[in-house]
Amino acid sequence: MTRDGAAPPRVSAKSELRAHIRSARRALPAAVRAAADRALVAAAVGVVRAAGATSVAAYVPMLSEPGGPQLVSALAEAAPRLLLPVLLDDLDLDWALHDGGFAAGRFGLIEPTGPRLGVDAVATVGLMLLPALAVSRDGVRLGQGGGSYDRVLPRVTAPTIAPLYPGELVVSVPAEPHDRRICGALVGTEPDGYEEPHLHWTKGCAIEHHWHSEQSSANDGG
Ligand SMILES: Nc1nc2c(c(=O)[nH]1)N(C=O)[C@@H](CNc1ccc(C(=O)N[C@@H](CCC(=O)O)C(=O)O)cc1)CN2
Ligand SMILES: Nc1ncnc2c1ncn2[C@@H]1O[C@H](COP(=O)(O)OP(=O)(O)OP(=O)(O)O)[C@@H](O)[C@H]1O
């Protein structure tokens, strides 16, 4: 998209999209959010099972992040080994084994207190569910802006999938050279999308994936 002479993406293009999605998330009525989270949790468990992954990396949803408060416990039932991120001082991510313990962290994060495995432990998972504010159909991820997953993604050999609310799988996200593409988004399409998320494989995934769940629609491009 940015070829000869095209202006490089403005930093503010990303922050404008972030602000837009954060405020849309905050504006979601509680009942809609609860139904969407319930459906996303069920779909995420379906993806874990379809992938046959016993070791999974995920995240602890913050207020208004897709998945909600039930995501971690549901994933823990589906995957015997669940790794959750711990934000380090330099904004890189360490990984802790989920053992049911949590403590408050920076930025309103809830972080695991289980055994720390080190930044490279994430290379051992069979599936990564990661947080995003938006994902483009070609796999560019918009995160919270710390650049944490820009550091993490090169260490990951598993499919990388972001649960999203409807409207957050977008045509394009302003890409910068450091951005690594992710493999898929778990997302519904409006109007009933809040209750029916599907797995959309993106066009940018560099990781070979051997499984497709019943609900997947590969590269539907629309
Ligand atoms: N649930 C969850 N866990 C996660 C992430 C995430 O996006 N979601 N991360 C993804 O990398 C890492 C944490 N990084 C984060 C970096 C910035 C902000 C954030 O909200 N920053 C706001 C300032 C908020 C405040 O000052 O209170 C901002 O920059 O505007 C959140 C998480 C690891 N754990
Ligand atoms: N490998 C890296 N090491 C250190 N800093 C990096 C790396 N990659 C990107 N960054 C820096 O991180 C900052 C934020 O990047 P970006 O906007 O892509 O974050 P993000 O993916 O939205 O956030 P997050 O992954 O934390 O949710 C940028 O200023 C970028 O220069």
Automatic annotation (TrEMBL):
Its EC number is 6.3.3.2. Keywords: ATP-binding, Ligase, Magnesium, Metal-binding, Nucleotide-binding. Coiled coil: none annotated. It catalyses: (6S)-5-formyl-5,6,7,8-tetrahydrofolate + ATP = (6R)-5,10-methenyltetrahydrofolate + ADP + phosphate. Its cofactor is Mg(2+). GO terms for molecular function: 5-formyltetrahydrofolate cyclo-ligase activity. It comes from the Bacteria. InterPro entries: FTHF_cligase (IPR002698), FTHF_cligase-like_sf (IPR024185), NagB/RpiA_transferase-like (IPR037171). Belongs to the 5-formyltetrahydrofolate cyclo-ligase family. This is 5-formyltetrahydrofolate cyclo-ligase. It comes from Dactylosporangium fulvum.
